[in-house]
Design goal:
The structure is a homohexamer. By secondary structure, the first copy, chain A, is α/β, with parallel strands linked by helices. Helix content of chain A is 43%, strand content 19%.
Chain lengths: 284, 284, 284, 284, 284, 284
């Protein structure tokens, strides 16, 4: 796996700021303001309560620092690291009020992104040793695509396109409305820049043949049987990147990978991955 | 169940607009712009592919209308309705380009919110006939709390507080830092308005006794056995609202409900509910 | 009075930033840029010119710090403190340009919020010794509710609900459209969370009786005579919180409080309180 | 008085939208959603409950239309009109839910801006027949300067500068830091565009003489006695615009105007004007 | 040239709204409000005053419609069309106040984007008949990249990448810091998705050889002589896309195109293209 | 020339933040993240590659600091300074990743604003020794007016009005719709504040006479011959500021200035000035 480069804080801050303000509402943290004296300091440990893969530490730590700049944080694990139950991921020290006020927002971020990383890692592990890569889709939470795609990378997966504008993916409806695979690809090629790759969804080997003839960069083999996938991989013969798509699970993934496809895309890791259970424990 | 009042569009529009712009990026929908002629109109059906409960129709339809005001939509089902596989939820007609460009954003919203409604409904169904209500937590997706709490209502659940500022929830850490249950409640009562209710998390019957003595509006019975819950409900004797909290599942819920608690709160329905599979099919 | 917990800076900063940019416009501070050399430092004292109660110090100081991070501030008084004419509230030191550029914005905030605190305190003082609390309404300046409600707390008052969504207040029109007090309360109770309190506006003792029978948490006794208020308080007998509402002034407040109501709400302290006169004086 | 041109809706909409969302919070209008059936329509009259001058009708009507586009409004009076108690200012018809949800926001705007117009008009009336104009200051509510300055115009007053960047106002501190009236004006003149007017605050006739010698466009005669004002007006002799400033009230204004000054500026009309009492009455 | 698909209005509106508010400031259009009666309607023609290529009509028309929804527009030419002096591009009818208030903003947009289209078209014309395409760079106006890249397409050019995140461009500094062309490409390939193309800047034929050996998708031949370009094109032999870069002008472009490169990139068309002179004429 | 006061960072930051996020998109800097190790530091020199005048240093340096607070910058030249090719303008040191990621945004700002300053300076130089000042117009890039007008000042020019609201400029269409020069000026004078200057566009000496009779503060002499300008200046005789407008170039400017006008306005310096070539060079 390649290094996992962190996203610049300028990309994360608007999300964390928005989430904190959503939680603070119009009156702030009523409970903490009333019960916790302003001068009390505390230290909390961010602790995994489940086995999984961590992603989103910067988001969680930023939540504390945006509430109070004097909060000090120390990371014990990095994004992409596997953790076991009770493992300490980071230590956070500062005014007790700030820690309690930011707690839920910090956890809402890191539990979600770590859940995605963990789900991704489970599929990646299932096909270890085979050449296929696990990739995500655009089925992400509205507004959080940047950090959810990052979480997929933290889990050992790779990213499909980030939006409608950074790559072309010609699907069945596009083909139908364009009047076939050939006119669809040709029109696209005339209209997009040289750094934009073109992928075509094909449902049959006939369509695949056509797409290859015109020179698609990648082909999305949608809901094919493993048998069909093998034939498709053979027909492609390295001339295009092959992507298998369908209801992939840790159970079905190995056989799909064994067909020789380059990529296995899976929406479930972003739209339905359960949150990873991570909590904050007070340490005296 | 009470009527499910829709949220005003002014509350939904910023979310949908933001999600569309996230997907459109800097260059818009490259594929559709190149392959679909501008004059082609189309009709699509929003179809459930799984059994579940619908929530978020307004979000999905708004996605289409924000891309093109001329899109016409017709709802066939309402938020809160149970649907079966292949059931049509709404029809959408208009320029084919607009339909294809808004498709993913519309689905990303409604699949997520319907997933929450469906998960909620499954727990609600499991305890049908008992007085306990299923409620959610603040473990929601950053930035989407408004619509996720709405989805819980669509699924037949009720809402816990919406943020740190609309109710008081005194947790173990607050009690520790305030020096006990009594000082914590007293300080809160002196500091908040008359319409703010006070709930206290209690881990033992001793703490419960103290909380009742001072007059908490509600008590959060955290991670108690069903035996302990029954004792707690007895001790409360109607003087406060009782909320059971812990790892609730459709399997464990009935026995918890049978202890007589008023509320069962569950984070899973918002932070880990799988998306409901809903798709868009072209209808000639 | 309970401690007055400060609002996190993350809640104040967008307001102050917006106000500074409103004043700076498109060309910045023309006068200061032309007349004041960049290297000159200065010290200013924030001085009360009238007797009153201070609120909003953080807003004022933030105005200076957002213009120039190097500005140093030292508070001499705290929010909630009573001040006499010529009393120094805070000292501000730094580049003279920054002090002059931020001056008006800083004062516009603190004079307004201190005006609200002062108005609140005058009513609070008028009923000292009685149990009734002075509370505010939703009649606040559009966009500034958070800090105006905070100013009410600084003046010794308490807060009514912060918006349409954090508590229920059933008014005469709701009752009329719902078909009576009973159906109105029953529908609300079925639709809101367990931490949402329900208050009902009643104009007559008959309505009050009905509201009590169904178990409203609070009753708003609108525009009743003191005689009627006394009867209402008697009828309630501690079963609900009683709120008197009408044109309350420092003169009329004591008699209203003497009726035994729990709360006296007053819109005037937010919508019509005159600003407290506070100025900035250069100290060599 | 000149015609009062309305501000384009694009300038008002962000303010009204923000205020509505502030009131709706995260859950919307709980009370109305539960008590008012969705199909009920209603008509409300916007009614003055006090004598005064109306300003801000567009803001109030926009609040209803932003909640529901189907609301129909009909104005009976215009901004700048004087109204008597019980006079109907506008009629609003549409879904009862929308009317009740937008009510408070609509009133919070129009009561404030009409309060400013009314306060302005009272001073304007006090000096009727004299040439002096009543003008406002930059002592406005943070974020609302545009509409508060508009309200001053509606009340028959005129506007001082709108910010730090659209005119130069050299005050005592600027003079001190620049080393005198002359260098202050000279530096400003070298640095600003030809359409920027220069006003200088003078505390003595000596300073006034200096300002006139260098050719200030306007002079701010701060806290002078009426005697001093008369001398100043004489000395100016029409060579500059004269502005009197100090604690102006309806009582003191006529004598100040009688000194012959061109302008009387007064902060009170924006920072301390009480709201005008305007309400909404249901009409069957 | 491919069809020029319009950008969805949702992508343009924030830019136009922001520009209108920048021009309206805090007081709106003082001149028009005072001089033009509100009931006067007018018709204006958007007229080219120079020969050129039109781009950005939607932006210009949106400016009028955002000021007043009742403005009616009729396009006579489309984006991408060549126009001659005095040619009418569109007709705009509606309230005279709205037309005058939006005029400058509308023109500021369309003159700039048409200037870019015109500059692009002049280079495209200079190399007509050769296979090379003219492409833009990331040297665009901060905040306006979307519409400036669109204008390049309107002028017959194509787009290079839209940002740092939609394609990889390994420049000299990256190569130096990565320790050579090979490690740079290898690290990138391990870290980016399958739809991300990789382009490498090469200054020498030795570097080019290395880049080709590792399989770069495209090579940026920076500041090479035409002689070197020819050798480079020969060496590439169709295995990668070739992009020539340097100070390209209409004069030098033909010889560069004659070297056989696929693409000629040029920053000048976005960062230094003069505005196209387009005006608005009143038609009775 | 007057001192060039810097704009407060609070006015620049939203522009730079927006531009960085535009470039970072949804995935950040793919190339740098993959090729540059996180621990490598570097130093870059901001170097002029052309002769010109610098403007916008704060914008460029802010770009680096917003990506990484640890970046250290040292300015060698100031805004308004003339530079020669290869002159170092500033040094920037810090994490190599941050330098490379912010590079393009920093340059896009400073090259544009320095281009405007340079163009302005070239016209200013052409009329050196004459009293006329060079001023800009409202023909600026949408959203960037603040910094483009600042750049004009850095180039030795002065600013015309900043928007529709800070001064009155009565143009031909306003005159036509108002029914003449006199009613136009009279209506304006009745409607605007005392610090708002009034300029009138006149096409003929007859109109000029009328404008002077009513007392316009400035007159815009549009597209007059130098002969006509001389007559106009004579007629004005110092009673108003005179502004010449038309297609001014360094070649035609001296003769225009020689007519004795006070101001020469020119749109070209903002809407069509080519960027100044400034680059970043790595220094080991």
């Amino acid at each position: 796996m390649a290094d996992l480069a962190p996203l610049p804080a300028i990309m994360l801050e608007p999300l964390v700021r928005n989430a904190l303000l959503e939680d603070l509402g119009r009156a702030g943290d009523l409970t903490t303001a009333a019960t916790v004296p302003s001068h009390v300091n505390a230290t909390m440990a961010l602790v995994a309560r489940q086995q999984g893969v961590i992603a989103g530490l910067d988001l969680a730590l930023l939540a504390f620092n945006l509430i109070d700049k004097s909060v000090v944080t120390e990371v014990k694990r990095s994004d992409g690291d596997a953790v076991m139950p009770d493992e300490v991921v980071a230590m956070i020290s500062g005014p007790a009020r700030a820690l309690l006020t930011a707690e839920r927002t910090a956890l809402n971020f890191i539990c979600r992104t770590s859940g995605i990383a963990t789900a991704t890692a489970s599929i990646v592990a299932a096909i270890r040793g085979q050449k296929a890569q696990i990739i995500c889709t655009r089925k992400t939470t509205p507004g959080l695509r940047t950090i959810e795609k990052y979480a997929v990378r933290a889990g050992g997966g790779a990213n499909h396109r980030f939006g409608l504008d950074d790559a072309v993916l010609i699907k069945d409806n596009h083909i139908a409305l364009a009047g076939g695979v050939r006119p669809a690809i040709e029109r696209v090629r005339a209209g997009v820049g040289h750094l934009v790759k073109i992928e075509v969804e094909v449902d049959t080997l006939t369509q695949l043949k056509e797409a290859l003839a015109i020179g698609a960069d990648a082909v999305l083999l949608d809901n094919m049987t493993n048998e069909e996938l093998r034939s498709a991989v053979d027909m492609v013969g390295g001339r295009a990147i092959t992507e298998a798509s369908g209801r992939v699970t840790p159970t079905t993934a190995p056989a799909i990978a064994a067909t020789g496809v380059d990529l296995i895309s899976i929406g479930w890791i972003t739209h339905s991955a359960p949150a990873l259970d991570i909590g904050l424990d007070f340490r005296s």
